[in-house]
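Shipment paperwork, digital attachment
Item: protein structure file
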Amino acid sequence: MPNIYEGRNVNIADVYELIEENSQMYIGWLKEACNQPSVSVLNEGMSEMKELVKFFLNKIGAEITEIETNGYPIIYGEINNGKEKTLTFYNHYDVQPVDPIGEWDSEPFETDIREGQIFARGVADNKGNLIARICALHAFLEVYKELPINVKFIFEGEEEVGSPNLEFFATNHPEKLLTDGIIWEGGTRGANDKRLHIGLGVKGICYVELVCKGANSDLHSSEAAIIENPAWRLIWALNTIKNENEEILIKDFYSDIKPLEEKEKEFIGTMDFNEEETKELYGIDRFIKNLSGYDLKDALTTAPTCTVCGIESGYTDEGAKTVLPSIAKVKLDFRLVPDQHPDKIAELLRNHLDAHGFQDIEIKQSHGLAPFNTDPNDLFVDKVLKSVKEVYKEPPIILRNLAGSSPMSKMLVDTGIPAVQIGVANTQSKYHAPNENIFVDDFIQGIKVTAAVVKNF
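Attachment content:
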Protein backbone atom coordinates (compact mmCIF):
# COMPACT_ATOMS: atom_id res chain seq x y z
CA MET A 1 0.00 0.00 0.00
CA PRO A 2 1.42 3.44 -0.88
CA ASN A 3 2.41 5.77 1.92
CA ILE A 4 -0.47 8.24 2.11
CA TYR A 5 0.91 10.35 4.93
CA GLU A 6 2.51 12.64 2.36
CA GLY A 7 0.07 14.04 -0.15
CA ARG A 8 2.65 13.81 -2.95
CA ASN A 9 2.47 10.01 -2.81
CA VAL A 10 -1.26 9.86 -3.40
CA ASN A 11 -2.05 8.97 -7.00
CA ILE A 12 -5.38 10.74 -7.31
CA ALA A 13 -5.92 9.24 -10.76
CA ASP A 14 -6.64 5.91 -9.07
CA VAL A 15 -9.38 7.57 -7.02
CA TYR A 16 -10.83 9.22 -10.12
CA GLU A 17 -10.89 5.86 -11.88
CA LEU A 18 -12.79 4.27 -9.02
CA ILE A 19 -15.27 7.17 -9.00
CA GLU A 20 -15.99 6.49 -12.67
CA GLU A 21 -16.35 2.76 -11.99
CA ASN A 22 -18.75 3.46 -9.12
CA SER A 23 -20.62 6.29 -10.85
CA GLN A 24 -23.91 4.40 -11.21
CA MET A 25 -23.79 3.36 -7.57
CA TYR A 26 -23.11 6.92 -6.47
CA ILE A 27 -25.97 8.21 -8.63
CA GLY A 28 -28.13 5.57 -6.97
CA TRP A 29 -27.14 6.95 -3.56
CA LEU A 30 -28.14 10.44 -4.70
CA LYS A 31 -31.49 9.17 -5.99
CA GLU A 32 -32.13 7.45 -2.67
CA ALA A 33 -31.42 10.68 -0.79
CA CYS A 34 -33.61 12.79 -3.09
CA ASN A 35 -36.49 10.31 -3.06
CA GLN A 36 -36.80 10.86 0.68
CA PRO A 37 -38.84 14.01 1.40
CA SER A 38 -37.29 16.32 4.00
CA VAL A 39 -39.22 19.59 4.00
CA SER A 40 -38.25 21.28 7.25
CA VAL A 41 -40.93 23.99 7.23
CA LEU A 42 -43.63 21.28 6.99
CA ASN A 43 -41.86 18.62 9.12
CA GLU A 44 -42.26 16.27 6.16
CA GLY A 45 -39.95 13.26 6.28
CA MET A 46 -37.35 14.92 8.49
CA SER A 47 -36.86 12.01 10.89
CA GLU A 48 -36.51 9.54 8.02
CA MET A 49 -34.00 11.79 6.23
CA LYS A 50 -31.96 12.17 9.41
CA GLU A 51 -31.63 8.39 9.62
CA LEU A 52 -30.72 8.18 5.93
CA VAL A 53 -27.91 10.70 6.44
CA LYS A 54 -26.55 8.54 9.26
CA PHE A 55 -26.86 5.48 7.00
CA PHE A 56 -24.65 7.09 4.36
CA LEU A 57 -22.10 8.29 6.93
CA ASN A 58 -21.90 4.73 8.23
CA LYS A 59 -20.82 3.63 4.76
CA ILE A 60 -17.53 5.47 5.25
CA GLY A 61 -17.02 4.53 8.88
CA ALA A 62 -17.71 7.93 10.39
CA GLU A 63 -18.28 8.18 14.12
CA ILE A 64 -21.72 9.77 14.35
CA THR A 65 -23.22 12.01 17.03
CA GLU A 66 -26.81 13.21 16.85
CA ILE A 67 -26.94 16.64 18.48
CA GLU A 68 -30.38 17.56 19.75
CA THR A 69 -31.61 21.14 19.34
CA ASN A 70 -34.90 22.93 19.83
CA GLY A 71 -35.66 21.97 16.24
CA TYR A 72 -34.27 19.28 14.00
CA PRO A 73 -31.04 17.58 15.11
CA ILE A 74 -27.61 18.32 13.71
CA ILE A 75 -25.84 15.20 12.50
CA TYR A 76 -22.15 15.42 13.36
CA GLY A 77 -19.74 12.89 11.89
CA GLU A 78 -16.02 12.45 12.34
CA ILE A 79 -13.22 10.33 10.90
CA ASN A 80 -10.22 10.97 13.13
CA ASN A 81 -7.02 9.37 11.88
CA GLY A 82 -4.74 11.37 14.15
CA LYS A 83 -3.49 13.31 11.13
CA GLU A 84 -2.11 16.83 11.13
CA LYS A 85 -4.88 18.49 9.13
CA THR A 86 -8.67 18.45 9.55
CA LEU A 87 -11.18 19.25 6.82
CA THR A 88 -14.87 19.86 7.58
CA PHE A 89 -17.91 19.61 5.31
CA TYR A 90 -21.03 21.66 6.10
CA ASN A 91 -24.27 20.69 4.37
CA HIS A 92 -27.97 20.54 5.15
CA TYR A 93 -30.43 17.69 4.72
CA ASP A 94 -33.63 19.74 4.59
CA VAL A 95 -35.21 21.06 1.39
CA GLN A 96 -37.82 23.59 0.27
CA PRO A 97 -41.51 22.75 -0.27
CA VAL A 98 -42.43 21.54 -3.78
CA ASP A 99 -45.18 24.06 -4.57
CA PRO A 100 -46.40 24.77 -7.19
CA ILE A 101 -46.63 21.03 -7.75
CA GLY A 102 -48.42 21.42 -11.09
CA GLU A 103 -45.32 22.97 -12.70
CA TRP A 104 -43.13 19.90 -12.17
CA ASP A 105 -42.49 17.70 -15.22
CA SER A 106 -41.87 14.70 -12.94
CA GLU A 107 -42.64 13.85 -9.33
CA PRO A 108 -40.42 16.02 -7.07
CA PHE A 109 -39.57 13.14 -4.71
CA GLU A 110 -39.21 10.50 -7.43
CA THR A 111 -35.82 11.29 -8.94
CA ASP A 112 -35.89 11.34 -12.73
CA ILE A 113 -32.89 11.38 -15.08
CA ARG A 114 -33.54 12.90 -18.50
CA GLU A 115 -30.95 13.71 -21.16
CA GLY A 116 -28.07 13.85 -18.73
CA GLN A 117 -29.89 15.85 -16.05
CA ILE A 118 -31.12 14.70 -12.64
CA PHE A 119 -34.45 16.19 -11.56
CA ALA A 120 -35.68 16.14 -7.95
CA ARG A 121 -36.43 18.49 -5.09
CA GLY A 122 -33.20 19.05 -3.19
CA VAL A 123 -30.85 17.60 -5.82
CA ALA A 124 -29.13 20.99 -6.21
CA ASP A 125 -29.91 22.43 -2.79
CA ASN A 126 -28.31 20.60 -1.08
CA LYS A 127 -28.40 16.81 -1.33
CA GLY A 128 -26.22 16.66 -4.44
CA ASN A 129 -23.35 18.24 -2.54
CA LEU A 130 -23.98 16.28 0.65
CA ILE A 131 -23.86 12.94 -1.17
CA ALA A 132 -20.92 14.00 -3.39
CA ARG A 133 -18.75 14.62 -0.29
CA ILE A 134 -19.56 11.16 1.08
CA CYS A 135 -18.95 9.52 -2.30
CA ALA A 136 -15.52 11.17 -2.61
CA LEU A 137 -14.40 9.87 0.77
CA HIS A 138 -15.85 6.45 -0.01
CA ALA A 139 -13.79 6.27 -3.21
CA PHE A 140 -10.66 7.47 -1.40
CA LEU A 141 -11.11 4.81 1.27
CA GLU A 142 -11.74 2.10 -1.31
CA VAL A 143 -8.38 2.85 -2.95
CA TYR A 144 -6.20 3.73 0.07
CA LYS A 145 -8.12 2.23 3.03
CA GLU A 146 -7.30 5.37 5.01
CA LEU A 147 -7.65 9.11 4.58
CA PRO A 148 -4.58 11.37 4.60
CA ILE A 149 -6.44 13.91 6.79
CA ASN A 150 -9.06 14.00 9.53
CA VAL A 151 -12.58 14.74 8.35
CA LYS A 152 -15.63 16.21 10.08
CA PHE A 153 -19.22 16.54 8.89
CA ILE A 154 -21.79 19.08 10.11
CA PHE A 155 -25.14 18.29 8.53
CA GLU A 156 -28.07 20.37 9.79
CA GLY A 157 -31.79 20.06 9.09
CA GLU A 158 -32.85 23.70 9.38
CA GLU A 159 -30.99 25.69 6.73
CA GLU A 160 -34.16 26.27 4.73
CA VAL A 161 -35.82 27.86 7.78
CA GLY A 162 -32.91 30.13 8.68
CA SER A 163 -30.62 27.80 10.68
CA PRO A 164 -32.01 28.91 14.06
CA ASN A 165 -29.86 26.41 16.01
CA LEU A 166 -26.53 26.62 14.18
CA GLU A 167 -25.21 29.29 16.52
CA PHE A 168 -26.27 27.08 19.45
CA PHE A 169 -24.17 24.28 17.97
CA ALA A 170 -21.11 26.49 17.53
CA THR A 171 -21.39 27.93 21.05
CA ASN A 172 -22.04 24.67 22.88
CA HIS A 173 -19.78 22.36 20.89
CA PRO A 174 -16.65 24.39 20.11
CA GLU A 175 -14.46 21.28 20.05
CA LYS A 176 -16.48 19.91 17.14
CA LEU A 177 -15.89 23.10 15.21
CA LEU A 178 -12.09 22.91 15.44
CA THR A 179 -10.83 22.50 11.89
CA ASP A 180 -8.35 23.87 9.36
CA GLY A 181 -10.90 24.60 6.68
CA ILE A 182 -14.51 24.08 5.64
CA ILE A 183 -16.07 23.18 2.32
CA TRP A 184 -19.39 24.95 2.77
CA GLU A 185 -22.61 23.70 1.19
CA GLY A 186 -21.97 24.49 -2.47
CA GLY A 187 -21.69 26.93 -5.31
CA THR A 188 -22.63 26.54 -8.95
CA ARG A 189 -21.19 25.87 -12.37
CA GLY A 190 -21.99 27.83 -15.50
CA ALA A 191 -24.70 25.94 -17.38
CA ASN A 192 -23.18 26.93 -20.73
CA ASP A 193 -19.55 27.96 -20.19
CA LYS A 194 -19.04 25.19 -17.56
CA ARG A 195 -16.83 27.41 -15.40
CA LEU A 196 -17.05 26.48 -11.73
CA HIS A 197 -18.06 29.31 -9.41
CA ILE A 198 -15.97 29.33 -6.23
CA GLY A 199 -17.47 31.35 -3.38
CA LEU A 200 -15.41 32.77 -0.52
CA GLY A 201 -18.39 34.14 1.37
CA VAL A 202 -21.93 35.45 1.29
CA LYS A 203 -23.78 38.69 1.76
CA GLY A 204 -25.67 39.19 4.99
CA ILE A 205 -29.34 40.04 5.27
CA CYS A 206 -31.58 42.21 7.44
CA TYR A 207 -35.25 41.41 6.79
CA VAL A 208 -37.87 43.74 8.23
CA GLU A 209 -41.54 44.55 7.94
CA LEU A 210 -42.74 48.14 8.27
CA VAL A 211 -46.29 48.59 9.56
CA CYS A 212 -48.22 51.85 9.35
CA LYS A 213 -51.67 52.07 11.00
CA GLY A 214 -54.48 54.56 10.48
CA ALA A 215 -58.08 54.31 11.63
CA ASN A 216 -59.18 51.30 13.64
CA SER A 217 -60.93 49.81 10.57
CA ASP A 218 -61.14 50.31 6.81
CA LEU A 219 -63.31 53.29 5.90
CA HIS A 220 -65.17 54.59 2.86
CA SER A 221 -62.70 56.45 0.67
CA SER A 222 -64.75 59.64 0.95
CA GLU A 223 -63.29 59.92 4.45
CA ALA A 224 -59.84 60.46 2.87
CA ALA A 225 -60.53 64.20 2.91
CA ILE A 226 -60.08 64.22 6.69
CA ILE A 227 -58.53 60.82 7.69
CA GLU A 228 -54.88 60.03 6.97
CA ASN A 229 -54.20 57.15 4.59
CA PRO A 230 -51.54 54.80 6.01
CA ALA A 231 -50.71 53.54 2.51
CA TRP A 232 -49.66 57.01 1.40
CA ARG A 233 -47.79 57.55 4.65
CA LEU A 234 -45.86 54.33 4.13
CA ILE A 235 -45.03 55.34 0.55
CA TRP A 236 -43.72 58.69 1.77
CA ALA A 237 -41.57 56.89 4.33
CA LEU A 238 -40.17 54.56 1.67
CA ASN A 239 -39.26 57.55 -0.47
CA THR A 240 -36.90 58.72 2.26
CA ILE A 241 -35.07 55.38 2.43
CA LYS A 242 -33.87 55.03 -1.17
CA ASN A 243 -33.72 57.34 -4.18
CA GLU A 244 -34.05 56.79 -7.92
CA ASN A 245 -30.25 56.48 -8.25
CA GLU A 246 -30.34 53.32 -6.10
CA GLU A 247 -28.66 55.16 -3.21
CA ILE A 248 -29.74 54.10 0.28
CA LEU A 249 -30.31 57.32 2.23
CA ILE A 250 -30.17 55.99 5.79
CA LYS A 251 -27.53 57.89 7.75
CA ASP A 252 -24.32 55.86 8.29
CA PHE A 253 -25.66 52.93 6.25
CA TYR A 254 -22.41 52.70 4.28
CA SER A 255 -20.04 53.71 7.12
CA ASP A 256 -18.90 50.23 8.24
CA ILE A 257 -18.33 48.66 4.81
CA LYS A 258 -14.92 47.02 4.55
CA PRO A 259 -12.94 48.17 1.48
CA LEU A 260 -12.03 45.59 -1.15
CA GLU A 261 -8.52 44.17 -1.20
CA GLU A 262 -6.65 44.15 -4.49
CA LYS A 263 -6.96 40.38 -4.73
CA GLU A 264 -10.73 40.65 -4.29
CA LYS A 265 -10.87 43.17 -7.13
CA GLU A 266 -8.95 40.67 -9.25
CA PHE A 267 -11.52 38.00 -8.38
CA ILE A 268 -14.29 40.21 -9.76
CA GLY A 269 -12.33 40.33 -13.01
CA THR A 270 -12.48 36.51 -13.29
CA MET A 271 -16.27 36.59 -13.56
CA ASP A 272 -17.99 35.90 -16.83
CA PHE A 273 -21.40 37.54 -16.96
CA ASN A 274 -23.29 37.21 -20.22
CA GLU A 275 -25.22 40.44 -20.09
CA GLU A 276 -27.31 39.99 -23.23
CA GLU A 277 -28.25 36.41 -22.37
CA THR A 278 -29.24 37.44 -18.84
CA LYS A 279 -31.39 40.31 -20.09
CA GLU A 280 -33.13 37.99 -22.54
CA LEU A 281 -33.63 35.35 -19.83
CA TYR A 282 -35.22 37.88 -17.45
CA GLY A 283 -37.15 39.78 -20.13
CA ILE A 284 -35.49 43.12 -19.38
CA ASP A 285 -33.71 45.60 -21.63
CA ARG A 286 -31.19 47.04 -19.19
CA PHE A 287 -29.62 46.67 -15.76
CA ILE A 288 -29.91 49.17 -12.92
CA LYS A 289 -28.21 52.49 -13.74
CA ASN A 290 -27.28 50.95 -17.13
CA LEU A 291 -24.44 49.10 -15.43
CA SER A 292 -22.23 46.85 -17.55
CA GLY A 293 -18.82 45.22 -17.54
CA TYR A 294 -16.76 45.32 -14.35
CA ASP A 295 -19.15 47.75 -12.63
CA LEU A 296 -22.07 45.35 -13.10
CA LYS A 297 -20.15 42.40 -11.66
CA ASP A 298 -18.85 44.54 -8.81
CA ALA A 299 -22.38 45.63 -7.88
CA LEU A 300 -23.72 42.08 -7.97
CA THR A 301 -21.13 40.75 -5.55
CA THR A 302 -20.07 43.69 -3.38
CA ALA A 303 -22.90 46.26 -3.24
CA PRO A 304 -25.44 46.32 -0.38
CA THR A 305 -29.08 46.57 -1.40
CA CYS A 306 -32.51 47.57 -0.12
CA THR A 307 -35.35 45.67 -1.79
CA VAL A 308 -39.10 46.04 -1.49
CA CYS A 309 -40.15 42.38 -1.32
CA GLY A 310 -43.88 42.99 -1.03
CA ILE A 311 -46.50 45.62 -0.18
CA GLU A 312 -49.96 45.03 1.28
CA SER A 313 -52.76 47.52 1.88
CA GLY A 314 -56.44 48.03 1.13
CA TYR A 315 -58.42 46.28 -1.59
CA THR A 316 -56.54 44.49 -4.38
CA ASP A 317 -59.05 41.96 -5.77
CA GLU A 318 -60.95 42.24 -9.06
CA GLY A 319 -63.25 45.19 -9.57
CA ALA A 320 -63.50 48.46 -7.66
CA LYS A 321 -63.96 49.02 -3.97
CA THR A 322 -63.66 52.59 -2.74
CA VAL A 323 -61.86 52.03 0.52
CA LEU A 324 -59.56 53.98 2.79
CA PRO A 325 -57.30 51.28 4.26
CA SER A 326 -56.65 51.14 7.97
CA ILE A 327 -53.21 49.53 7.70
CA ALA A 328 -50.30 49.31 5.26
CA LYS A 329 -47.36 46.94 5.38
CA VAL A 330 -44.18 46.52 3.41
CA LYS A 331 -41.51 43.84 3.64
CA LEU A 332 -37.92 44.94 2.99
CA ASP A 333 -34.69 43.06 2.77
CA PHE A 334 -31.28 44.66 3.06
CA ARG A 335 -28.44 42.59 1.58
CA LEU A 336 -25.32 43.43 3.57
CA VAL A 337 -21.60 43.27 2.89
CA PRO A 338 -18.59 43.10 5.25
CA ASP A 339 -18.57 44.67 7.93
CA GLN A 340 -22.26 45.59 8.10
CA HIS A 341 -24.44 43.91 10.74
CA PRO A 342 -28.22 43.32 10.57
CA ASP A 343 -28.95 44.54 14.11
CA LYS A 344 -27.14 47.80 13.49
CA ILE A 345 -28.91 48.29 10.16
CA ALA A 346 -32.28 47.81 11.89
CA GLU A 347 -31.24 50.37 14.50
CA LEU A 348 -30.14 52.84 11.82
CA LEU A 349 -33.47 52.34 10.04
CA ARG A 350 -35.35 53.13 13.26
CA ASN A 351 -33.29 56.29 13.75
CA HIS A 352 -33.88 57.27 10.13
CA LEU A 353 -37.66 56.93 10.31
CA ASP A 354 -37.79 58.83 13.60
CA ALA A 355 -35.66 61.65 12.22
CA HIS A 356 -38.05 62.00 9.26
CA GLY A 357 -41.16 62.16 11.41
CA PHE A 358 -42.29 58.56 11.02
CA GLN A 359 -42.05 57.55 14.68
CA ASP A 360 -45.45 55.85 14.35
CA ILE A 361 -44.26 53.32 11.76
CA GLU A 362 -43.50 50.04 13.49
CA ILE A 363 -40.46 47.95 12.51
CA LYS A 364 -40.73 44.19 12.88
CA GLN A 365 -37.31 42.62 12.40
CA SER A 366 -37.94 39.15 11.01
CA HIS A 367 -34.47 37.67 10.76
CA GLY A 368 -30.92 38.62 10.04
CA LEU A 369 -27.62 37.11 9.01
CA ALA A 370 -24.26 38.81 9.14
CA PRO A 371 -22.12 38.67 6.00
CA PHE A 372 -19.15 36.32 5.98
CA ASN A 373 -15.97 36.35 3.92
CA THR A 374 -12.87 34.21 3.92
CA ASP A 375 -9.50 35.95 3.66
CA PRO A 376 -8.62 35.58 -0.03
CA ASN A 377 -4.95 35.15 0.95
CA ASP A 378 -5.61 32.12 3.18
CA LEU A 379 -3.65 29.03 2.11
CA PHE A 380 -6.84 26.96 2.21
CA VAL A 381 -8.16 29.05 -0.69
CA ASP A 382 -5.04 28.18 -2.67
CA LYS A 383 -5.52 24.46 -1.94
CA VAL A 384 -9.10 24.52 -3.20
CA LEU A 385 -8.15 26.52 -6.30
CA LYS A 386 -5.38 24.01 -7.04
CA SER A 387 -7.87 21.16 -6.74
CA VAL A 388 -10.38 22.83 -9.04
CA LYS A 389 -7.74 23.44 -11.70
CA GLU A 390 -6.76 19.75 -11.56
CA VAL A 391 -10.32 18.54 -12.19
CA TYR A 392 -11.95 21.12 -14.49
CA LYS A 393 -10.71 22.16 -17.91
CA GLU A 394 -12.30 25.58 -17.67
CA PRO A 395 -10.77 28.29 -15.45
CA PRO A 396 -12.93 28.99 -12.38
CA ILE A 397 -14.86 32.12 -11.55
CA ILE A 398 -13.84 33.29 -8.07
CA LEU A 399 -16.45 35.20 -6.12
CA ARG A 400 -15.45 37.31 -3.13
CA ASN A 401 -18.94 36.44 -1.97
CA LEU A 402 -22.17 35.15 -3.45
CA ALA A 403 -24.95 37.66 -4.10
CA GLY A 404 -27.23 35.74 -1.73
CA SER A 405 -27.04 34.86 1.96
CA SER A 406 -26.46 31.76 4.06
CA PRO A 407 -25.84 31.08 7.76
CA MET A 408 -22.03 30.98 7.49
CA SER A 409 -21.61 33.75 10.06
CA LYS A 410 -23.74 31.91 12.64
CA MET A 411 -21.14 29.19 12.87
CA LEU A 412 -17.91 30.86 11.77
CA VAL A 413 -17.96 34.48 12.94
CA ASP A 414 -14.81 35.40 14.88
CA THR A 415 -13.36 31.86 14.48
CA GLY A 416 -10.81 32.65 11.77
CA ILE A 417 -11.77 29.39 10.04
CA PRO A 418 -11.63 29.69 6.24
CA ALA A 419 -14.65 28.44 4.30
CA VAL A 420 -14.96 27.94 0.55
CA GLN A 421 -18.01 27.00 -1.50
CA ILE A 422 -17.79 24.61 -4.44
CA GLY A 423 -20.73 22.58 -5.66
CA VAL A 424 -22.47 20.33 -8.16
CA ALA A 425 -25.33 22.65 -9.19
CA ASN A 426 -25.42 25.00 -12.16
CA THR A 427 -26.66 28.51 -12.81
CA GLN A 428 -29.96 27.13 -14.17
CA SER A 429 -30.55 24.48 -11.49
CA LYS A 430 -33.84 26.15 -10.46
CA TYR A 431 -33.15 26.27 -6.74
CA HIS A 432 -36.38 26.35 -4.69
CA ALA A 433 -38.42 26.11 -7.92
CA PRO A 434 -40.17 23.35 -9.86
CA ASN A 435 -37.91 21.05 -11.91
CA GLU A 436 -34.85 21.55 -9.68
CA ASN A 437 -31.95 19.81 -11.40
CA ILE A 438 -28.24 19.17 -11.79
CA PHE A 439 -26.22 17.58 -14.59
CA VAL A 440 -24.99 14.01 -14.10
CA ASP A 441 -21.51 15.06 -15.25
CA ASP A 442 -21.41 17.89 -12.72
CA PHE A 443 -22.27 15.45 -9.92
CA ILE A 444 -19.38 13.16 -10.90
CA GLN A 445 -17.02 16.13 -11.28
CA GLY A 446 -18.11 17.33 -7.85
CA ILE A 447 -17.10 13.99 -6.35
CA LYS A 448 -13.70 14.20 -8.03
CA VAL A 449 -12.95 17.75 -6.93
CA THR A 450 -13.79 16.84 -3.34
CA ALA A 451 -11.31 13.97 -3.56
CA ALA A 452 -8.73 16.38 -4.99
CA VAL A 453 -9.22 18.75 -2.03
CA VAL A 454 -8.62 15.84 0.35
CA LYS A 455 -5.42 14.94 -1.47
CA ASN A 456 -4.09 18.50 -1.72
CA PHE A 457 -5.01 19.40 1.84
